[in-house]
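Hi,

I'm pasting everything inline rather than attaching a file, because the server keeps stripping attachments. The sequence lines come first, and each chain or strand is labelled.
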Amino acid sequence: MSSGKGAPTITNSGDLEAGQRMFELCKELWPLNRSLTGPGNRETLQILAREFPEIEIFEVPSGVEAFDWNVPQEWSVNEAWIKGPAGEVIADFSVNNLHLVGYSSPVHARLSLEELQSFLHTLPAQPDAIPYVTSYYNQTWGFCISENQRQGLAPGTYEVLIDSKLFSGAMSYGEIFLPGENKSEVLLSTYICHPSMANNELSGIAVSLQLARDLKEMKQRENSYRVLFLPETIGAIYYLSQNLANLQENVIAGYVVTCVGDERGFSYVPSRKGDSYADKVAHYVLDGLKSEVTFYEWKDRQSDERQYSAPLVDLPVGSIMRSKYGSYPEYHTSLDTLGDVVTPAGLAGARNIYLEALRIIEANFKPLATTFCEPQLGKRGLYPNIGKKGVYEDIRVLRDLLSWSDGSISLLEIAQKSGHDFWALHESATLLLNEGLVQNNSVRT
Amino acid sequence: MSSGKGAPTITNSGDLEAGQRMFELCKELWPLNRSLTGPGNRETLQILAREFPEIEIFEVPSGVEAFDWNVPQEWSVNEAWIKGPAGEVIADFSVNNLHLVGYSSPVHARLSLEELQSFLHTLPAQPDAIPYVTSYYNQTWGFCISENQRQGLAPGTYEVLIDSKLFSGAMSYGEIFLPGENKSEVLLSTYICHPSMANNELSGIAVSLQLARDLKEMKQRENSYRVLFLPETIGAIYYLSQNLANLQENVIAGYVVTCVGDERGFSYVPSRKGDSYADKVAHYVLDGLKSEVTFYEWKDRQSDERQYSAPLVDLPVGSIMRSKYGSYPEYHTSLDTLGDVVTPAGLAGARNIYLEALRIIEANFKPLATTFCEPQLGKRGLYPNIGKKGVYEDIRVLRDLLSWSDGSISLLEIAQKSGHDFWALHESATLLLNEGLVQNNSVRT
Amino acid sequence: MSSGKGAPTITNSGDLEAGQRMFELCKELWPLNRSLTGPGNRETLQILAREFPEIEIFEVPSGVEAFDWNVPQEWSVNEAWIKGPAGEVIADFSVNNLHLVGYSSPVHARLSLEELQSFLHTLPAQPDAIPYVTSYYNQTWGFCISENQRQGLAPGTYEVLIDSKLFSGAMSYGEIFLPGENKSEVLLSTYICHPSMANNELSGIAVSLQLARDLKEMKQRENSYRVLFLPETIGAIYYLSQNLANLQENVIAGYVVTCVGDERGFSYVPSRKGDSYADKVAHYVLDGLKSEVTFYEWKDRQSDERQYSAPLVDLPVGSIMRSKYGSYPEYHTSLDTLGDVVTPAGLAGARNIYLEALRIIEANFKPLATTFCEPQLGKRGLYPNIGKKGVYEDIRVLRDLLSWSDGSISLLEIAQKSGHDFWALHESATLLLNEGLVQNNSVRT
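And the predicted assembly:
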């Protein structure tokens, strides 16, 4: 895992253990009814706090302004079901929370099948799947079932109960801040607003928490790290509305961590301009993979990089994923499950890739030579004593590094210019730092 | 015609009418003996004034300085012919004004066929064509006939008469100025110095006048427009010598309108540096054509973009053409005729392409978002109420536009970055302007 | 030779004579035992002084600091040999100075064959060749013989004598400075530290001296020229330590002249950033060759461009070579000989290429038009009097040059933009300078 060239396969028992631990966390979080707000979100954050006590949990009252938006009402659901003509249960929120359209208002009614139809949502192209549907900003109600189930519904009278509340409560989110030697900051953001779906929700939470663990265990951190667990869109917008100046000043790179649990290939959605530091690091790490990687464009964005990279905000935030939201068939349906889609190995591989990116960000700097011309390596034991044909090649990495140490480009850029591996250059850079032959001017991008 | 993606074919009766009207104007202007100066130029401008009374006509006295040049003497021709040994007419200026070398000095003489030969110009490679020849800055005389006719000339004595005058008169040119809301200005320039040739002269005059009509009929103009009818080279140089500071301050784009009457493919000669706003608009419009387009380079320039884009002048002026001067066989010969080369449909298509370019220049601006992060589209009825798989795609243009509205790039550049059609973006931009979600900072290029 | 498009073949007796003269100089310098320091270097410089009296010779005492380095001790060798068990001579420095490892310390000993082996250097892959080996910064001793010879050595007692001295003396180098009209300066640097090797040592000295001759014979020099003859690495570093500010202020281009004597293809190692003026000129000249050229990258550097283009130094210095050091089989062995590798024709061709580069640097400037718009060429006799089809092409070079004369780009860049030959443009530029239509603002790169 110390080389950017290797595939992020699971290579030791530590990785396997971490994969299994992330998978267990997903299982525990699976049944909770997460949405923009509500008790499911709070329970999710409480479980994270048990695992990582340093997390700070915030409650933002409904109605609070956040740029062009307001924090929505809190939504809670006690019970929700449809019963058929014979009293049989057609769909029950307590069995699968996807059955209920998100933010459904309360209702108790008897309807004919014809009347019921307009409140039912199905996916004709995926007749076995229950779709995931929400109606956050328009009060209505509805149920989601499989197309197969809809086709089998008999004529008659149906009873519908939704015992839900929409009220002036609060929106919950969590934040982990790990201070480093410098104010320069790396942002990780994941969302906690989808009910029982595995890749497009739980994988992001589990990998983000694991990365927080990994960062906490580092003996020293050059950069500070901020890991956010918040509802998509409104959560990110609220957070930005409170912290924009600080983030614009300090964030050197960031990633939206989502869809990181399956075992399919990796993918990347860049920041808006496509050339931010986050983009450069992601490209370097993903280019080093032996497997195929899909590089998307800004036009393919669909998660919170929309807010972090918006005009006037413009943070250097991209998103490293496995199968991108919208690109895999199980997305936003009841088929996006633990086991079938998300696996311990899938989670572990994504954690490894992210960790490699973070390690590069930690280790990268712009070396500046302290001597004019080449230094005399021989007197420091860094040069072969006997000059013969070919001897020059043995210290090629060290010499190429020195030759690019003008303080204007980083090890990462030198890796790209010279073709040498980042970590080989870093090893030489550490040697040269120790010898006083280059300086680290703390320009870290 | 409202979409940059469609070919500029004649699509309605208005276009056909305009094509026919332009063609009739060409027919009326055909017989006049235009040159750098002289009565043919004045008659041409008088006809334009009858059609478009707002045109202002200028007379610049011979000898006036214009940068490195002087306005030439005025040239007028009363009569010019060659008669053969048997008194038969060999070439008569009153039949075709191409027979006389432009700016020929007066002569009345009898010469042997051998003596006459050195005053005759033909095109051996196009034996049926009478070539177009001038001698503006070296006093001489000559006649142009077809190579076939030259081969049939019998030995004997020939009588030559040129009843012409070169005298201290004036150079004439015309200018239409259509003020807009802003001082930013678009320049169209065409020339009025070629005698009876259709594509390489009359088409430019007719299309330029039609565009002036089209611009005049606009309810509102964001930019001001300047349409010049002047003799090539000396006319443009004189005009620049009088108006350079104003043009350098205000012109955002311009085109030399010439060779715009045939039905062959479109072509483009760029401004010197190739990346001016005129170039970008022309590329966008021409790239949208289904038919083949030839993109020339600066080295292929040959008309007044030479002056407008000269060093120290550097106006953003290119030239959208159909068949470029020099590239079609009839160029600068008697074969460049109305009907065979220039047609109503050819003129109408060129007018449409230019009109599309001008409309884009009118509509283009650099949108600047008024909110941090994405605005809440739902509360404004701009977002589908129910969130399900795929719903995001329906408002893709609007959201991509918003995501690029950082005030630094225009709708035209957003079209290129996003792959969306300019007019689709413009429709969304209008909606967002009306909602107050973007500002138009009046940065129009 | 006046056209950049032609191959630098030997085209006249002057070239052949120069080639022969360079070859004779190589022959005279061949037997001298050059190293970082010592009598062989001084004798080499004395011969150069006989040929070119303006050369200034410097002696730098051992121990003097030069950035991170110190000038090494002086090394001189009186006698050095190995005798075999039967008293037969195995290797004798007086027969071939490559037999002795450079900077060997004195020794007189009797050793068994086993003991001797660790002091012997051979090239198993090239069994006929004596390798070139040095040990500048680690006191030891050794001998170099062919692998074939090593295989034939009989067991027994060997006598080894090295009568050498390492002492506080001096390092010698030579400098030719040819002042020009301007302080802008071109640097040529070659090294004088290899014993009997032809392409990778003597060719550089001979061609550099010939170029100094050629430059001295120029009637007028726009730029000043500096030609350095110094030991590789420490020589260049010492020189830079004394002259850095002056060089950084004035050097517009420079080349390390080495490996310029064989008849194989040309090659180029660029300056660090690859876009210096030296690189642009070299590319233009080498691109014009009909034969194949190898363009190396910065990572392939291995000679004094390492110092001249180092971070904090950053002079615009590349290296035009024939077969690059390290790329040809005879490199750094006894096979790199006069006759087999280096020939008069090879030397003459390299001199021609360098001369072409220097002539372009002399002739190049950024023309600035003195008139707005195109000037009137006709009144100056620069334009064909009769305007007909095709006439424009005849003065294409002149007009394209004028159209790019905005003072921001040089003739060399105009050659690349327009596709015209540099010397054709230069001819037009001279005409325009004489007519006062362009200015030379002395911006020479």
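Chain A touches chain B through 39 residues (CB under 8 Å).

If the labels don't parse on your end, tell me and I'll reformat.
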